[in-house]
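Hi team, as promised in this morning's meeting, here are the two structures we talked about. I've kept the exact order from the run log so nobody has to guess. The first one is mostly here for context; it's the second one we should focus on when we meet again. Sequence first, then the predicted structure tokens.
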Amino acid sequence: MFNIAIIGRPNVGKSTLFNALIRKKKAIVSNISGVTIDRNYGIGKINDIHFNLIDTAGIIDRVIDKDDFIIQTLKAVEDADLIFFVTDYSSGILPHDFELSSILRKKQKKVIHLVNKFDVKNNNFSDKEAMKIGFKEIIYISSEHKEGFNEIYNSLIKIENFSKTENKLFSRINNSHQINISFIGKPNSGKSSLINSIIGNNRLVTGSKAGLTRDSIHIPFSYRNKKFSLIDTAGMRKKSRVNNHLEKQSISKSMLAIRMSDVVILVLDSKEKLNKQDLILAKRAIDYGKSVVIALNKWDLIKNKINFKKYFIEKIKISLSQLHDVKVLPTSCIKAYGIKNLLDNVISIYGNAQTRVSTSDLNKWLKFLSEKNPAPLVRGKKNSLKYISQVEVLPPRFVIFCAYPKDIPSSYIKYIKNNLKKIFNFSGVNIVVNIKKTSNPFTVQK
């Protein structure tokens, strides 16, 4: 598919343009410079054409320093077939725009100059200055109001026709399913470093400073002929410590990433003991019905590894009874240790989560379970479990019907879940069991 990278200095509206073209609020938008530091990918669409779209960090006058986020942006330029070079109509053309345009011209890429925020009045804006940038094609747009997008479409169509001989056509969206994995954890637990280790290059910006990742970044990846989308999320601190709007946006994106995931990897720093915030993050994933794998990261720094792993497993069993069979897997980004084992377990859990059990097998099991250990009596009456059916996969969701659903204690529901997981091989999977009231067959339906 045709690759288009959005390039420009900070705060010219690149992420707003990215969101408008992919038709989702995927990238965090803020009037604070430097929110985007990693490449962000999406499928862009204008009318009847689709293309890969790459949002990048704003390049400023520190290009010479070769900061990590600058390298990430320049890598996006290398990967792109076309560049959307974005400037800001409201502020006018600035010296940084000229510096950046000079870098792009050296790359010898096809560039369309998009002057954004054209809906904002600025009597001091100079068309001559825009032309001095040096790119022949200039389109005035408003990403926020989607103005000028038809002009972009017309330019892309010309490129499509021109590129037929090079087989670089825009293509339709590929709907083949992939395993979506989100990496969650406290700030500086090593989520970005772990993803870099998985894909084998420094795709994400990392550092000792906590909170570098602000947005949820989706990264395509293949392993054992399976497609993955690795989702890096912002580190989530205690709610009481979150006091600025940008961090609240980041956490909201992280929560959305969890809901979009098939499997969630909770990344823990092995140097620190399991604490309440780690447990809260795991519980949030469970509440969304997601299967959780725990990565004990920075494992190379632990000396007494056997006892340390036992400590974590026992602590989890006590604090998170819902995760009694959770996979606790040591990893090390520096040593590239445990990466294959982590991915193999994710594939196994994903396969288990897609299991669909026949209704007849489920009801045979339910009858045996009810006879062996019946539900507690309700005011001296039996509360028989009448019928069970599986209604969903990913996560597997079951509905059980009985006379008094509200009187089924949580301990008995937990007993049902554990037995279901054991008998039907839902190892490592977070299954959902809902108890509903048996409908009266003699009730007249209106």
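And here is the second protein, the one for discussion:
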Amino acid sequence: MNTYSRRHFAALGAASAIATSLPLRHARAAEFSFKLGTNVPDSHPLNVYVRKAAEEIAQATDGRFELKVFANNQLGGDSDMFSQLRAGALECFTLSGVNVLSTLIPSAAIWGVGFAWKDYPTLWNALDGQFGTHLRSQITKAGLVVMDRIWDNGFRQVTNSVRPINSPADLQGLKMRVPVSALWTSLFKSLGASPTAINFAEVYSALQTKIVDGQENPPAIISAAKLYEVQKYCSLTNHMWDGWWFLVNRRAWESVPADLRDKVAGIINKYALDEREEIARQNSSLQSELAAKGLVFNNVDPAPFRETLSKSGFYNEWRAKFGEEAWALLELSTGKLG
């Protein structure tokens, strides 16, 4: 009968462990490796759920398709990443229609019309329906691939370090950071503020150094980016909803076999719906957490703001810019604006 020492068993165990690890170390590289750039901090639900999607994609495609997530502007600001996407240096990018995308496709910004959406059910019925189909068709015509489901950023609130915003008069002369977007700039000018377009990667430092007094973002971003450290007041204006289209470089996407594209797109769209639920939960629950960190909240009546926008000609101006077809689809969901 053979006898084995403890040392022999240890050696056998080590050899077994090495053999088990070899397929992992020498697994074949993915046939298709796509980079995804995002512009929000790593802990934001957008990044959490695109990583979940990436994990499921790797499993569902048996490792043939790899989605690498580069969060928090690691690959540059919005303008830089959008240029990379169009050139093919970046395969995927999550981008707001109201932001840099509107520099290529002006009508992509239409969902950002000020004080248009009353609640989430109204919004999702529009964006998952005829209104969203129209917007995606405009993106497709511009040569980009866009996933069917949009990812949620949330309803935006105004923060600043000067005073609470209760009426349009409180915005007079306030130096407000806005994203790089004509619509955002127009909205805050029409309300009497002094807007400055700054990419998100530079917002914290701009607030800290008082280049601007305030900014506007959903609570999930205010929390993830720690903007409460450089802001005092948060006024619950719900002045605009914003989200991210999941965009893909067309040449890169068409290099992937159709069956694989269907799997990847299905998984991305599924996790977009999960991310929406998490964003809505966070944006409704974060107020107490942010208040404990020193942010002072106040509720806002939207009626005076809508009235100011109507009197200033804001709605008529953007109706003319977006065109009758897009505006009619918007008002089909929101009701009459202006």
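Starting points for discussion:
The mean pLDDT is 91.
The longest helix spans residues 258-292.
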